[in-house]
Design goal:
With about 70 residues, this protein is mainly alpha-helical. It has one domain. Helix content is about 40%, strand content about 0%. It is built from 3 helices and no strands. The longest helix is centred in the C-terminal third of the chain and has 12 residues.
Length: about 70
């Protein structure tokens, strides 16, 4: 979600997590990553993994060899 927040804005993600409108319903927003949103998991801050590290983690989690 942090990578998507780099496109959408941390403030709007914070507002969503506190009960505001979903930023993912906006037509002007393009996600970098698709995932099931979960307000309880949102924490503001910079992404902790680079995009290649994230892809490696996702592939490993799904049992995909890259």
């Amino acid at each position: 979600m942090r990578w998507n927040a780099t496109e959408y804005g941390v403030q709007r993600m914070n507002e969503w997590a506190e009960g505001g409108d979903s930023p993912f319903d906006s037509k002007d927003y393009k996600r970098l990553f698709y995932f099931p949103e979960n307000k309880d998991l949102w924490e503001p801050g910079s992404p902790q993994k680079t995009i290649p590290e994230l892809w490696e983690w996702v592939a490993k989690d799904l049992g995909i060899t890259i």
